[in-house]
Amino acid sequence: MEKGFKLFLKEALESSPETFEEKRQQLPTTLLFAVLFFLPYYTLILIPNYGIDSIQFKEDLFAGNFVLGGFVLSILFSKKLKKDIVLCLPAFGALFASYHFLTHQEFHTARPYIWVYAQLCTIIFVTTLGTLRWNLILIFLIVTIPTTLSFQYEHIVLKDVIERQAVVYFIGIVIIYYVYRQTVSSKELRQFNEKANLILNSSELGTWQWNLQTNEVIFDKRWKEILGYDEAQIENSYENWEKLVHPEDLDKSKAAFTDYLEGKVPHYEVKFRMKHKDGHWVPIISKGKILEWDQQGNPLFFNGTHFDFSILEKLQADLENEKLKLVHSSKLATLGQMAAGVAHEINNPLAIISNANLLLKRSDKEGTKEKVAQQIDQSVERISKIVNGLRKFTRVSDDFSKQRNNLHTIVSETLELIEFKAKSEFVEIKPHNLQDVDVNCDSMEIQQILVNLINNAIQENAQKTDSWVQVEMKKSDELVEVIIKDSGKGIEDSVIENLFNPFFTTKEVGEGTGLGLSISRSIAEQHGGSLNYELRDGHTAFVLTLPVV
Ligand code: ADP
Fold first, then answer.
1. Mutate which of 517, 542, 543 to test ligand 1's pocket (most atoms within 8 Å of Cβ)?
2. Which CATH class is domain 399-549?
3. Whether the predicted model's global pTM rises above the 0.85 cut
4. How far is CA 413 from CA 138, 409, 419, in A?
5. Does residue 62 or residue 290 have the better pLDDT?
6. Which terminal CB of the chain, N or C, has fewer other CB atoms within 10 Å?
7. 239 C-alpha vs ligand 1 centroid, how far in Å?
8. What is the CATH number of domain 204-312?
């Protein structure tokens, strides 16, 4: 109780802006009561021998102004002065006013009623600060009822009653205010607890509390769940924690605690493994803080959380999986864009085979058979190259199988795959300075980058006159560049900013996924290289850089 009251005084003196905001919202209601409070003073004018000129009236009016002014000032300045106690001013005012009513003999009969009325208004003032109905009831019980009752006892000198009541009244206000703050605090505390529980539940955190004096510990439900236990299946004890921590991690965990106690680190944070009921090890991140000390400065309670970070590992795996799916869908989209060209390109050798077959059936000339067989072989080879290329291109792999590859071969194979698309869009492909350079890479992944880049260049320049895409290689000591330059005159600044952002596309819905460049860049980086846009010789260019071996 004593501690609570101290807290109350501290709070009253350091009101927070939120509290002020709450009061400000109640301003219209409280002002209304203030006006009501004023009314009796003005009605006094109507009472004979108590007119506008009387000293008594002026004094009462002064008291009223004091109440109203005090109240308004308290509302306006409580934030600035940070003194909520100022809010007691109206109560003092009411007290002052009622005292006046009762000490002036001329106004003997009306005084008690007006006094009670004034007191009621003040009660309402104070209560509106709290807006708690039971505060009102409380003040009725503490102040109004005894005061009113006291009037029943004629033999008690009125002045004495009032003086006594003044003390009661003041204490009443303080109690109300205290109860109000307590209620708000416990409501805030309840809300805070609810929020904290919600956060803890949704964040999968288990909590623990360790009483350092008695060595008692409390593990919450989630703490136990992480290790596969029901609430009742594992006892709350320090020994249990020690038993379940991986023997290799125990010293590290204890050292982290000692470091924290000695002030070497601001928080207790340590990773260790704990044994699950099934027998497997659960990776845990434990964080903690000492929240209470005794008078001598000895730590009392050590509170903290447990987080099972295998959840993160699982999330990471899910994310990788999703990424893989995206890569695949981007490949399929590129494939879809090339489908028409592929069909056309396969039809050509098929037509050759079919013609050759006819020729074979009709001709009996010497040497024709060999020639036709050769044509068929070549066409079949062409078809299988295309089909193989497509099959490899759509392959989904979760890890790169890097090996020494000739970049020239990869580039040539890619050009072959893309050639038909270029032809159908009237874009000339110009290989330039292709050289035999070895790189350590997954050839299919590098091919995917090249297909994306060349495909983009073809799409951007499709159906235009004199459009071309140049594929050039440049080698320095440690790096090799593959430059895909096209007849475009550079990309707009607003597009450049977003080029490598996933899902950024300027293409029609269904035509572009916006994933090509972002995936290509991440593949290049995974190979220790880079992929960048550049304006080269006034033309749009994408430069793929890879380390040579
Ligand atoms: P998508 O091709 O599906 O749109 P990308 O990530 O491959 O996705 O490309 C993103 C955007 O970059 C394209 O929509 C286009 O605006 C721009 N872009 C890419 N390559 C070129 C190029 N050679 N010329 C002009 N703009 C290009």
1. 517
2. alpha beta
3. no
4. 90, 6, 10
5. 290
6. N
7. 62
8. 3.30.450.20
